[in-house]
Amino acid sequence: PAWRTLTVAGAAPHLVAGRAAEDAACRDLEGLGYRLLARNWRGRRGELDVVALDGETLALVEVRYRASADYGSAAESVTWRKRARWVRAARELLASEPALARRAARFDLVEVEGVPGELRCRVVKGAFSL
Predict the structure, then answer these.
(1) 79 closest CA partner among 105, 51, 109
(2) Can you tell me whether residue 25 is helix, strand or coil?
(3) Distance CA 5, CA 19 (A)
(4) Of 6, 78, 98, 108, which residue is the least packed, with the fewest Cβ within 10 Å?
(5) What residue spans of 55-124 are helical by DSSP H?
(6) Closest listed residue to residue 109, CA positions, set 81, 78, 87
(7) Residue 68 has what pLDDT?
(8) Which pLDDT value is given to residue 4?
(9) Which of these, 54, 128, 47, lies nearest to 93 by C-alpha position?
(10) Which residue, 81, 129, 108, 128, is CA-closest to 25?
(11) 19 vs 9: CA distance, rounded Å
(12) How far apart are CA 81 and CA 62, in angstroms?
């Protein structure tokens, strides 16, 4: 069936593009001096795309990808529901990792736009506050 269309690598095209966007975001974060601690951290309450340190500050990073801005920016795709899941996942991570819970923390966003091979990233530190 059409819904089972796979790429040569064995993954759906949107998953390949999403992975490329996350890879680009991580390279960009590292270039800005972030130290990556985890990618795709999963808990019962949600997922954090990237957990990193920016200096001494814990950055809980969401990566949002858009091939084009035809339907709004990547940042505009972060709804209140997505923010709520982001916060729940962050609370779960901090409850399970006391050493991280003692650090100042913030929610950062990486907007990724373009097509694989031509991706552009923009890091938004402190994308929202509680």
Answers:
(1) 109
(2) helix
(3) 17
(4) 98
(5) 80-96, 98-101
(6) 78
(7) 72
(8) 38
(9) 47
(10) 108
(11) 12
(12) 13
User: What whole-number distance in Å separates Cα of residue 70 and Cα of residue 66?
Assistant: 9
Best CA proximity match to 128, nearest among 64, 74, 80, 72: 80
Residue numbers in the chain where pLDDT is lower than 70: 1-10, 130
Task: Please say whether the beta carbons of 121 and 28 come within 8 A.
Answer: yes
Nearest to 61 by CA among 99, 21, 96: 21
Residue 5, pLDDT score = 38
pLDDT at res. 101:
95
pLDDT the model gives residue 9: 52
Alpha carbon 75 to its chain's center: 11
Q: Which two tokens stand for residue 54?
A: 């920016």
- Dist. CA 112–CA 67, nearest whole Å: 8
Residue with tokens 């209140």: 80
